[in-house]
Write a structure and sequence with these properties.
The radius of gyration is 50 Å and the shape is flat. It has about 325 residues and is α+β, with helices and mostly antiparallel strands. Strands 6-5-14-13-8-10 form a 6-stranded mixed β-sheet, with no helix packed on it. It has a 4-stranded antiparallel β-sheet with strand order 3-4-7-11, with helices on one face. Strands 1-2 form a two-stranded antiparallel ribbon. Strand 1 and strand 2 form a beta hairpin. About 45% of the residues lie in helices and about 25% in strands. The protein has 4 helices and 14 strands.
Length: about 325
Amino acid sequence: MEFELIKKSLQDSGSFAARDKNTPYFETSVNNAKGGFVYAPSKKRVYNTDELKKAIDVSVFELIPEGEETELDLVPRPIYNEVTRSLELANETIASQSVEIGNLQSQVSELTSISASLDVQLDNERLLRVTAESNSEQLRKQFALVNDTLQTSLQRSVLEGIDRTSLQARNEGQSATVQSLSKQVDSLTQQLNGKNARLAEGAKAGADITARVVEKSDAKLADLYFDYKNKSASGTWLNGPTVELFNTTLEDVTVNMKMKNANLVWINGPSIITLKPQEKVDITLQVDYPKFNGISSKGENYGGSVVFSTPNGELSFTANMWRHKK
């Protein structure tokens, strides 16, 4: 009974009974009625309540967000602007060329469709020819049978002979049609291959012709670019002056050349060029030096475009001349 009272006293007092002890066990002295000493482990930890409240009871009235870090221009602004502008121009070029490629692909698809249609027609003609040959063989057998029974079916033999002649004539006409269609397919294939070859070389395509600048030293400049220094006897072509023209059709084509949208027409060349079917011709553009005498300003760009046109369409090259101050 006495032990139970001591145990209850320790449980009621908790860790306050040994608050001055630093060990996990505490020593306590009971009153005289109980007597003796009792050692027991403490199940409650000792905290400084006042300090604990200071650490926990904090009123948060504002959360300050983290400020954005200032991003500095690590690349010089002129260089950044120049690169950005170059990227925009490149994107514009890619977009325009994508449209042009799409148009060319549409033309290729159209020609491919025509070729497929011609192939179907050719197959039909071949089927007709086989059918006609089969009919001709049957008529030959019938004609042999009629010869054996000529006395009894002379009229029938005559009619079948006429039918055979008609079918032979039809067969010959169909053979001629097949040959004509084969030639058309070969011609269209030749046109398509020639045009695709020019496009693969970087040429521009019109309705009847393709054209490309042969000398291309700097793709960032205009298609035709002439650098002119006043003190030199003649300037320097950076892009140009030779232009390759190719007739993609099977007929003669007349090409007209002239300079448009220019504040100064400073390029000369043959104004009319006649190309034979599938013919490739190189023309050399020339600079009109006497026109420079009429230029009052120096240190300027003189732009424009050189246009090659046919009765069915046209294509153009950008042109630029830089006249130095000295």
